[in-house]
Amino acid sequence: MKQQMTPYVCHIFVCTNVRENNPENPGCGSKGGGELKDLLKKAVNERGWKGKVRVSTSSCMGLCGTGPNVVLYPQGIHFSAVTENDVPLIMDALHKLLPENRKIWFPAKTFGWGWGPPCSWQGWVVLLIYIALLASASWLMPLNESPALYTACVTGLTIVLIIICIWKGGRPRWRWGK
Question: Contact 108/173 with Cβ under 8 angstroms?
Fold first, then answer.
């Protein structure tokens, strides 16, 4: 067995399950899931995203009452009660997820987990503000006078920096140089 990362930025799963023995809840396939998959596949191809985005059928997602259901993976975005009129909205959401359409301030590290140095001026501004605020905290709240307050301040600033990195950075995951 060979384990590897998925070659797709996003994998769209469309439930096409049909429950023939359950007329009260016939499943997403009976509500247009198959046609929806075809429309999504056509929209992906029209935008030139083949090779970056994959559209696949899915069996039951366990949410038949709200179907047809569509999930964008690995982003974990779930759409329910999807109609063909919603395809452009799903494509717009997907457009924002593609790396070339998302302005990254902090790229994911090549080795290990986390983010590397900033790759845009906005990232550098955030990092310089973080450093300046850390220096100010050291000056205003010396560690030897109020260690709890200083630790809380540094922790708070670091949490804010991590939130900004999550929001404006590359997707962090364990990497081994690829």
Answer: yes
Spatial distance between the Cα atoms of 82 and 61, rounded to a whole number of angstroms: 14
Query: pLDDT digits over 71-123, tens only?
Result: 998 888 899 999 999 999 999 888 887 766 667 788 877 788 888 888 888 99
147-168 and 121-140 helices cross at what angle (nearest 10)?
A: 170
What's the distance, CA 20 to chain centroid? 35
- Cβ neighbors of 65 (< 8 A, separation 6 or more) are 25
Do 85 and 44 lie in one domain? The reply is yes
Count up the domains in the chain and report the number: 2
Give the residue numbers spanning the domain of 50: 10-101
Whole-prediction pTM: 0.57
Say how many CA atoms lie within 13 Å of 178 toward its Cβ. Answer: 6
Residues 18 and 71 in one domain: yes
- Identify which of 38, 47, 36 has the alpha carbon closest to the alpha carbon of residue 9: 47
